[in-house]
Automatic annotation (TrEMBL):
Protein's name according to its UniProt entry: Sce7726 family protein
UniProt entry keywords in alphabetical sequence: Plasmid
Lineage: Bacteria, Pseudomonadati, Pseudomonadota, Gammaproteobacteria, Moraxellales
Length: 288
């Protein structure tokens, strides 16, 4: 039987992982029975390890790319004490696939073999207005067209056949002023309020209908005084969207992107850590 890669890759989506956190292994049971010849080990970790291996070799979807970005571009270069990765960060009408915040903000827009490049020019235009550096992370299949589409400031990274990231072109750090109004719309209320209160060194009070404009005015005034707002925004995002280090270090590496990209309750996080820590003992074909 041929493998339906799209189906087996669902074990890495938030819905299936949420069920595993609730000790529901029905989907894994169905997969392991349907593709039994591939699974000598039908334990929880055995199935996940095998499917991740299959996807790495034959079906490099967005999850695979983002997991490798977390591993190779965040953890191998920084630490979770100093850097944070954001997933699906909204910028205007677009969502940046990955943004790594350290001393600067670096955006990574993923284009797999299963993606088109139709929206790429619009995406890059938005991201270049708010992030310090912007990269397209793609494959050899798209490389020539990506090179045509990318403006001079945008870097290009290719995932090669050996699962290494090759920097085809380095990004040029943004020299123009950030579009702060666009950036503000990407922030949550608690974040832009924190920035404004930091700047005025006082608590702000205003009706909910006016608080956004009040914060924006404070930030624009600070910009006119050449205060480094970009640095303050980065530190604020790192504070409010800090990656859960205990979650990341408590699960196998093939789930790292899930720990960043999906929202789980505290009890679900604890159960996922517990289940995968004891994953070799959980046989999904057993009755629970």
């Amino acid at each position: 039987m041929n493998i339906d890669y799209k189906v087996i890759s669902k074990i890495f989506n938030s819905n299936v992982l949420g069920k595993i956190a609730n000790n529901d292994f029905c989907f894994l049971k169905d997969i392991s029975q349907q593709y039994s010849k591939y699974f000598l080990d039908t334990s929880l970790t055995g199935i996940y390890e095998k499917i991740y291996e299959i996807l790495l070799n034959d079906y490099r979807n967005e999850y695979i790319f983002k997991n490798l970005i977390f591993e190779k571009l965040l953890l191998e270069k920084h630490t979770l004490d100093t850097a944070t990765m954001l997933s699906e960060f909204r910028v205007g009408a677009n969502k940046a696939d990955c943004v790594i915040l350290n001393g600067k903000s670096v955006c990574y827009e993923v284009k797999t073999d299963f993606d088109t490049l139709i929206r790429l020019p619009e995406q890059l235009n938005s991201y270049s207005q708010v992030f310090d550096e912007v990269y397209v992370v793609s494959t050899l299949k798209h490389l020539k067209n990506v090179e045509i589409v990318c403006p001079d400031n945008v870097g290009i990274i290719v995932l090669d056949n050996h699962l290494n990231f090759e920097f085809v072109k380095n990004a040029i750090q943004r020299k123009s002023q950030i579009n702060f109004e666009l950036y503000m719309k990407s922030l949550r209320k608690e974040e832009y309020l924190s920035i404004a209160e930091y700047l005025v060194e006082d608590k702000l009070t205003a009706p909910n209908t006016q608080i956004y404009d009040k914060c924006l005015n404070i930030i624009e005034e600070a910009v006119s005084k050449n205060i480094d707002i970009n640095k303050i925004i980065i530190e604020t995002l790192k504070k409010y969207r800090r990656n859960d280090e205990s979650f990341t270090t408590g699960i196998p590496s093939y789930l790292w992107n899930a720990s960043v990209s999906y929202r789980f309750s505290k009890s679900q996080v604890e159960n996922l850590i517990h289940n995968f820590s004891n994953g070799e003992m959980i046989n999904v074909l057993s009755d629970f």
